Amino acid sequence: MHKSLWDIIHGGGVPMWIIVGCSVLAVAVGLERITAHWAFMDKARALTETVTRCLARGAFAEGRAACERSKSPLADVFLVGYERFGRSSQEELVAAVHRERIRVTTDMKRWVWILGTIGATAPFIGLFGTVLGVVSAFSGIDAAGGKTSIDVVAGPIAEALYVTAAGIIVAVEAVVIFNFLNQRMARMAAEMKLLTDEFLEVLVAHGPQAGGQTDGATTRDADGEEDDGHRDAA
User: What is the dihedral of CA 18, 20, 22, 23, to 10 degrees?
Assistant: First the structure.
């Protein structure tokens, strides 16, 4: 007998409804993060272009004002650079900016843990639902005094197995979205570092009192990667 999707879900009981909820939640988290990441990088690229242009033509205050107006999280990174410039050594400036960059990058991972949790637990929820279904089927046999046929038992057991299948499908769905977002976040983190380095280069080269920075210094960002400092000509 052919069963509709609704019949399968309804027949699976509470565990099946939990799995359906996990599926909806996984899709919602995936869509929210993809949309947020897309907007994040668009705003970050636009802000970097605006600020570097302002600094290149000596409009230091204008670039800072653009950061203060911007809704991009990268603006917080650039503002740390503006606040530290002229008050800290070049090495301290670079370290502070990259620390803020790492904080902002970490915020991009918000809610992603939910996908990992669903991917790990959905199969077990499905298995639990199947166990309950099988127990229910055999309880029915016991209630009938042990006199029953395979046709009577097959239906409830089949419904129970649907729950395991659903749990596996939802787990695969969550893991695929999780891995996609992880790859995307890795690319975004790399681009964030490039944008931050570009800002620092222009800030040190064109900011007010640029010549007052430590000459010939080698700076190290918060990731432990070294960048050659600006050296004044002898």
Answer: 170
Please classify residue 18 by burial: count the beta carbons closer than 10 Å to its beta carbon, then call 0-12 exposed, 13-18 middle and 19+ buried: buried
Q: What is the pLDDT along the chain (234 residues), one digit of tens a residue?
A: 567 888 888 888 899 999 999 999 999 999 999 999 999 999 999 999 999 999 999 899 999 999 999 999 999 999 999 999 988 888 999 999 999 999 999 988 889 999 999 999 999 999 999 998 888 877 777 666 656 666 667 777 888 899 999 999 999 999 999 999 999 999 999 999 999 999 999 998 887 765 443 333 334 444 444 444 443 433
Rounded Cα gap, residues 12 and 169, in angstroms: 15
Inter-residue contact 189 to 206 (CB < 8 Å): no
Domain edges within the chain = 36-208
Give the integer Cα–Cα distance in Å for 144 and 140: 6
Cβ(6)–Cβ(16) below 8 Å = no
- Please, are residues 62 and 36 in contact by the beta-carbon 8 Å criterion? no
Identity of residue 52: T
Residue with tokens 């395979």: 150
- φ and ψ at residue 227, rounded to 5 degrees: -125, 140
Provide the CA 36 distance to its chain's centre, in angstroms: 9
